[in-house]
């Protein structure tokens, strides 16, 4: 299997999870954190089946590893136009995923429920928000940009990079504001904020 095929195959395996994960966040943005938590519960029961988790983690490792190899092999700094944006957004997304998935797995190993409260705790913990606000905004912008460009390029369509990036940026900023409690009333319970002092 070629590197690009591995990258595309693992992307397909991750797509179902990412669509449902982002749908929970979109519902939370529109209807509030309680709606997010209610919607995510049945999906978490599916995604947390041991075999499915192993497949998702394997796909994530394959996706990130093949993406970084493609980035290095292609020497992205020489690329122009959409390919450069595809590479930059992919690198940003890979960095986020390595940090985020490691944090989720570490928290779960200590018995912490990694629901919306876990993600939002840093945004409601004083100076930690200075890290988490750009962290989540860049991650969502990178995800929407990388996936959007991949889909449009695969279909042979001209990709309006500014439009795609602005959609991602708007969604990312909206999620940050929602998790910070600035769109809907939302206070993360103290047990999740305790990790931030």
UniProtKB/TrEMBL annotation:
SUPFAM superfamilies: Fumarate reductase respiratory complex transmembrane subunits. InterPro entries: SQR/QFR_C/D. Keywords: Membrane, Transmembrane, Transmembrane helix. This is Uncharacterized protein. It comes from the Bacteria. The chain crosses the membrane at residues 54-72, 84-107, 127-152, 164-187. It comes from Gemmobacter denitrificans.
């Amino acid at each position: 299997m070629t590197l690009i095929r591995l990258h595309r195959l693992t992307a397909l395996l991750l797509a179902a999870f990412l669509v449902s994960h982002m749908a929970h966040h979109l519902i939370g943005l529109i209807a509030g954190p309680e709606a997010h938590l209610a919607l995510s519960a049945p999906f978490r029961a599916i995604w947390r089946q041991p075999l499915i988790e192993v497949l998702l983690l394997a796909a994530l490792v394959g996706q990130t590893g093949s993406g970084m190899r493609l980035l290095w092999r292609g020497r992205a700094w020489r690329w122009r136009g959409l390919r450069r944006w595809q590479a930059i957004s992919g690198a940003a997304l890979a960095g986020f995923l390595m940090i985020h998935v490691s944090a989720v797995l570490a928290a779960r190993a200590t018995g912490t429920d990694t629901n919306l409260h876990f993600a939002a705790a840093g945004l409601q913990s004083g100076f930690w928000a200075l890290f988490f606000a750009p962290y989540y905004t860049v991650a969502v912008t990178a995800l929407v940009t990388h996936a959007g460009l991949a889909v449009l390029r695969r279909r042979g369509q001209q990709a309006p990079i500014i439009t795609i990036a602005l959609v991602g940026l708007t969604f990312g900023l909206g999620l940050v504001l929602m998790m910070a409690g600035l769109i809907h009333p939302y206070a993360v319970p103290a047990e999740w904020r305790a990790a931030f002092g």
